[in-house]
Amino acid sequence: FILLGYVICIILIVGCAFWITYKEENETPEPIDFTTDGTIGMEIGEYAYFDVEELSTEVAIYGDLENEHNSENDRYYIAFNQGYMYILDLDFETIEQLKSYIYSEENTNLPTESTRVYGVTESIPDELKTIILEYCNEGLEEDMQIKAQDFERYFGSVLLNVRKNPVDTSLQSALMVIAMFSMIILVISHILI
Predict the structure, then answer these.
(1) Phi-psi group of 66: left, alpha or beta (phi > 0 → left; psi -120 to 50 → alpha; rest → beta)
(2) pLDDT tens-digit series, residues 108-145
(3) Which residues, in sequence order, are CB contacts of 155 under 8 Å at separation 6+?
(4) How big is the chain by its Cα radius of gyration, in Å?
(5) 20, 31, 39, 72: which has the fewest C-beta neighbours closer than 10 Å?
(6) What pLDDT shows up at residue 112?
(7) Cα 178 to Cα 67: distance, rounded to the nearest angstrom
(8) Number of Cβ within a 10 Å radius of residue 120
(9) DSSP letter, residue 102
């Protein structure tokens, strides 16, 4: 009975791993260019790519502020492409990949080639809009500041969340976790019997 349980758990784990890989390879839609029309009027939930030419420092973090190293936190940056500004929500891996694109007094020698990132479009929360405007307007004369009513003209109507996958594999991931948990229970019960 326990041996059969092991076999079923292993088959489920391996099967789910292959199912996730299959879905990601075959169901990922063709990405659109995030810079199309400055993202004005772009729909939410679109899979898109963006070629990063320059990146701001981190503008805002949403989520578990007690633990800023939590990978579930949203980390917002302003990215530049052909002189236009766009908002990206980046994960740690992408931030590390794009570090050389962050302009600062210490890093003025930016790469000449852009780096492409992929993600899913999302609406921009009003609170984030306020934070971005404060970030961009800091130190500027009032007549040079970006006004709230002009936000969409400068940043578009959506942001690109690099942390989101366009293919939902939550069912397969849940089945895999259940199979792993069942395997652990089987191992414990096998040891105790």
Answers:
(1) alpha
(2) 677 888 899 999 999 999 999 999 999 998 888 888 88
(3) 39, 78, 85, 86, 87, 124, 129, 132
(4) 22
(5) 72
(6) 82
(7) 28
(8) 21
(9) B
